[in-house]
Write a structure and sequence with these properties.
By secondary structure, the protein is mainly alpha-helical. It has 8 helices and no strands. The protein has 2 domains: about 1-70; about 115-205, no CATH class. The chain has helices at about 5-25, 30-70, 85-90, 115-130, 140-145, 150-160, 160-175, 180-185. The longest helix has about 45 residues, at about 30-70.
């Protein structure tokens, strides 16, 4: 049986292909209609499975939270101190661990194949990390609010990584030497070719 991540990935690929077909001025009903209908049917076939797994995951999270809360309320008994919840449950399934918000850049085609909810969740985590690093002095809440829009969330992911910031700084410090060369092609971001946009946490309009 497919995992939740696999189902979401397949739906993302289907959505991206449907969007590509919708944007193609040469696409016709005769030439693309059957493929479009097949993709839509497959997406709808996956959706109940995705919802079921999502519900099961949410229930598991509730159980783990309640168990952890109960463990903190235990009084020491004849058996000694209660064990922390983490030792009772182990490390847990991988899908319960916090992921790198900037992970899977290549697989998601520079975050263009992620769902809106995934974009928002990743960007919100990235903002939280940057706020802890004091990269958003006094602007953490503003950035979190901005991250609730999928388009801005994607922008944050594309232009919020340490690698992007270092390349941007190199370009600013040396716009005619190696910095220019790196700006012209070191990263795969299309909008960065030939120059860099501001890293989102330096852009007052975004954060």
């Amino acid at each position: 049986m497919a995992t939740l991540d696999e189902l979401i990935d397949e739906q993302n690929r289907i959505a991206a292909e449907l969007q590509r077909m919708a944007d193609d001025p040469d696409a016709t009903e005769e030439g693309s209609g059957n493929l479009r209908d097949t993709l839509i049917n497959r997406w709808e076939e996956i959706e109940p499975q995705r919802k079921k797994l999502t519900t099961e995951l949410e229930r598991l999270n509730v159980i783990k939270r309640r168990a952890a809360e109960d463990a903190t309320n235990l009084e020491p008994g004849d058996g000694g101190q209660p064990q922390p919840a983490v030792s009772r449950f182990g490390s847990g399934p991988e899908f319960l661990q916090r992921r790198d918000p900037l992970g899977d850049r290549d697989e998601s085609r520079n975050f263009t194949m992620l769902t809106g909810n995934d974009l928002i969740a990743r960007a919100s985590t990235l903002v939280e990390q940057h706020d802890r690093r004091q990269l958003l002095p006094g602007r953490g809440e503003q950035a979190t609010r901005a991250a609730q829009a999928p388009a801005i969330a994607r922008h944050m992911l594309q232009f919020g990584g340490d690698e992007y910031y270092e390349a941007f700084r190199e370009y600013v410090n040396d716009p005619t030497g190696p910095g220019l060369q790196r700006a012209a092609g070191a990263l795969t971001l299309a909008s960065a070719q030939g120059g860099y946009l501001l890293p989102y946490f330096l852009d007052q309009k975004v954060a």
